[in-house]
Amino acid sequence: MATMPSRAATAPRAIESVLPQVDRFWRFLDRFDAVPEYARDDRIRVLRSQDLGDLRANGKFVAIALEDEPFTFFGIDDDVLYPADYCATLDAHLGRYRGEAVVGVHAAVIRAPMASYGRDMKVLHRRAGQVRAEGVDLLGSDSLAFCTSSLRFDVREWPDLNMVDLSFALEARRLRIPLVMVPRPAHWLSALDENQEDSIWVGVMRDDARQTELAQELASLSRSQLPRARLRRLTYRSV
Prior knowledge:
Layout: E1 2-3, H1 11-18, E2 25-29, E3 44-48, H2 49-52, H3 63-66, E4 72-74, E5 80-81, H4 86-96, E6 102-104, E7 107-110, E8 121-124, E9 134-136, E10 138-139, E11 144-147, H5 164-174, E12 179-181, E13 190-191, H6 200-206, H7 209-220
Parallel strand pairs: 1-2, 2-3, 6-12
Antiparallel strand pairs: 4-11, 5-13, 6-11, 7-8, 7-10, 9-12
Helix pairs in contact: 5-7
């Protein structure tokens, strides 16, 4: 998780919902003057922007470059409430692909022609139910899982800040690692807050020029095929 001081109302609840499910919880504190009380737990490893640089939201992935041994990474955001079976469910889906895919909940499909990232993208929202596993172009870094033995990178080398989902999708696509949206009931994940003034998405809606460039690059790369499975036509059930 990467978090900032303005998420003090939601971050503790997000952490509490996931902490019992993991062995280690990496937490990147973006521009905090001090470590908050809700980050003090034996399982939480605190990383600070003062030590690692101005990574902003990219900091949620920085632990991948700091851990020597492979592990299963679960994406967490500071404004989402996770169910008690979040990690176990994603881990089970990951096992179906023998760790050779990225699985997740919140997702998107790029629609051609891509003229605007904000307008030409079909969002498959975390709150919606999904009837089967589907290949997608983007997975939200708030709700995904993958094995670092298959996908490993260092966000300190990324050229862009706060374009996490696109930058991550490009990392996976270049290695031909498919992104898979998993089936789940409606409202399996729930938002603790949305569309905050300082949220990344609000910024995208103001100016998506750079995001559009990255999305066009992503669309230009060949679509990966699911290991031992066939990409079906994407279906989406809204609720």
